[in-house]
Amino acid sequence: MNQNNTPSVGFYIPAAIILSIGGWGGLLAVIYYTLPTLGPRWLFFFLLVLGVSGLVLPISAYLNRRFPSKPPATVFTVIREALLVAFFAAALIWLQIGRVLTPALVILFGLSIGGVELLIRLRERSRWNP
Question: Using one digit for the tens of pLDDT, what is the confidence trace for 14-23?
Answer without folding.
Answer: 999 999 999 9
